[in-house]
Structure formats: structure tokens, C-alpha cells
Amino acid sequence: MADSKNAAKPSGIRSALLERYRVDDSKPFHLADYDPGDTAGLPLDKAQGKALLKIAKKRLAELQDLLYANGTTSMLIVLQGMDAAGKDGTIKHVMSGVNPQGVSVTSFKQPGPQELLHGFLWRIHISAPSAGRIVIFNRSQYEDVLVTRVHPELLEREHLPGEIGTPAFWKGRFEDIRHFEHYLSRQGTLILKFFLHISQDEQRTRLLARLDDRDKRWKFSGSDVKEREFWDHYQHAYEDAIGHTSRPWAPWFVVPANHKWFARLTVLESIIGTLEKLAQKPPVMDPTFSHSLDAYRAELGGEKS
Q1: Residue 305: helix, strand or coil by DSSP?
Q2: Per-residue model confidence (pLDDT) at position 11
Q3: 183-204 b/e with 16+ CB inside 10 Å = b?
Q4: DSSP string over 83-98
Q5: Are 254 and 21 in contact (CB under 8 A)?
Q6: In the chain, where the domains are located
Q7: Domain 4-302: which CATH class?
Q8: Locate the Polyphosphate kinase-2-related domain: which residues (predicted)?
Q9: CA–CA gap between residue 302 and residue 226 (Å, rounded)
Q10: In 3D, which of 19, 15, 122, 130 has the Cα closest to residue 75?
């Protein structure tokens, strides 16, 4: 075990992770440059990583309270990854300490008949966060340049004009996503997008674990095995989508996710680092209202117990 006295401080970890895994849109992006088993060389073991998670959760709760109280900025967190990458577990562990009044999770399944009559961003826009809130997308608008890219026959349900599935078509969708996210950013929404990057071997191990654990078998779907056949296609689709849509106002982070504790710590510290840059303070109370609260305090304090 690493010496806890020599373990990196949360602030130092935060800075390192923000820079290490953030996709720089000024450089060519290659998914192969990111190791799913990386832990950034941190002098931590699994137990210490979990201990840091507890500390970070408290800090996130403080920052989320300020975000909600000020009501001027919102945050959208996008989680993407292959099956068994750990999206649900990340949400559960990272957001377990925040006030549910100001946080919600939206999981996007296959679009229904009504949704298919609208543009692919329609259901996304109406689920975007309002001021002061944090919204997490478990899968997102990116399914429409990932699943439909690997299985273009799905596009036939979308009532689209013109040619579909061409290079120009996908270029247009990437542009639509960039413009949509830029619009949200200008309206005061902070956008963070995380690709939980696991290896094919690690996915196999996790799927087998689900089958071996009767309490987790409900998580297993036959489609998980079927989609493994398209692993390389999905990797290409992710690389293309991330490379075309990571921008300063909506950055992508490629998070090594073979080690669950490290993936959760990376996501959490990235969120905290972004919120801390707002340097928010408790809202200033109107003096008249503050005086009325003092009167209530005096009245309550004067009551006989």
C-alpha cells in the first residue's frame, strides 16, 4: 500500500486528471492513445482511491448547493461507453452525496414513434438542465452518431429526407451537435462529456461476472454479446464522434475505466474542478428580507420551551 502521507492531494489530482484525459481539439485525436487500464501514475491503491472519493463527494455537495442557490448556471454531464463500461455505477457513486432536489438523471433508450417524428436533438433539448441544476445523460445525443453509425439501417425509421448514412450526412450531424452544445453553453450550461474507456477483455470479464452473480443477472442482455461483434466498428464511431465534437465549451474526457474506482474518481474530480472555476459564493440576501429573518429569529428564540 502507498504511504497515505505521500499520497497526492485532491487538488493536485484534480489538476492532473483534467489535463491528462481532456481531449484537445487542436490536435488529432486517436482513441488508441488512451490506455483503458491507466491510473495516471497516482500513488494510490484501490482503498485510498475510495477514501478520496468520499472526500470529493463532500466537496461536490458544497459546490452543487452553491450552483442551485445562485440559479444562474447549470451543468450537463454526458456519460457514454460500451456496455458494462460502468455508467450506472459511476452515476451511483459520484452523485450519491448531492441534494437530489438539484440533480436528475435522464437515460435515453431507443426513440419511440413520437420521438422519431422529430429531429434527433428534439428529445435531448427538452431534457437539458434548467438554471441551477445538474443533469446527467446516461447515453445521449451521441447515440445518434454511434448506434446509427454502426447500424445505419436504423436511420430508415427517422423520416429523413435525402440520402442518409453518407459522409456528408454524418458531417452534418456532428455540426448539429456542436451547434446545439454551443447554444447551451451560451445559455449558461457547463457541458462535460465522459467516454468511459474499457478494453474488450475487461468488458468480457464484467459480462461474465453478471452471469455468474444471480443478483446481477437482471443487468445482462443478449444484445450485449451481440454488440461485441461490432466492437471495432464502435471504436471507430466513438473516435470519429469525439474527434469532431470536443470543443472548449463542451470538452470530451476519455476516462480509463478498467479500474472502476479510478474512473469514478476521474469523473468526480473533473466535475469539481469545473465547478470550482465558477468561484461561486452564497447569494447576497436582500437587506429588508434579512431583517425580517432576524425578527423571526427573535420571535422563535423568545418562545418558552
Answers
A1: coil
A2: 60
A3: ebbeeebbbbbbbbbbeeebbe
A4: TTSSHHHHHHHHSTTS
A5: yes
A6: 4-302
A7: alpha beta
A8: 44-278
A9: 70
A10: 130
Q: Write the CA distances from 248 to 49, 189, 221, 253, integer angstroms.
A: 28, 13, 36, 12
Relative to beta strand 134-138, strand 74-81 is parallel
pLDDT of 63 higher than 70: yes
d(CA 194, CA 23) in angstroms, rounded, equals 10
User: Whole-number mean pLDDT of the chain?
Assistant: 90
Distance CA 68, CA 19 (A): 27
The pLDDT tens digits of the residues spanning 207-236 come to 999 998 877 777 777 788 889 999 999 999
* Cell of residue 186, nine digits: 451560451
Share of the chain above pLDDT 90, in %: 72
pLDDT at 7 over 70: no
Side chain identity at 73, as an amino acid letter?
T
Count Cβ atoms below 10 Å from residue 226 Cβ, excluding itself.
Answer: 9
Give the residue from 295, 215, 197, 208 showing the smallest Cα distance to 253.
197
d(CA 42, CA 149): 36
The three grid cell numbers given for residue 21, joined into one nine-digit string: 484525459
User: Distance between CA atoms of 52 and 56, rounded to whole angstroms?
Assistant: 6
Cα separation, 13 vs 270, whole angstroms: 10
Query: Which one-letter amino acid corresponds to residue 299?
Result: E
Amino acid (1-letter code) at residue 172? G
pLDDT of residue 6 exceeding 50, the answer is no
User: Are 86 and 255 a contacting pair, CB within 8 Å?
Assistant: no
Provide DSSP, 141-194: GGGGGTHHHHSGGGGGGS---S--SSHHHHHHHHHHHHHHHHHHHHTTEEEEEE
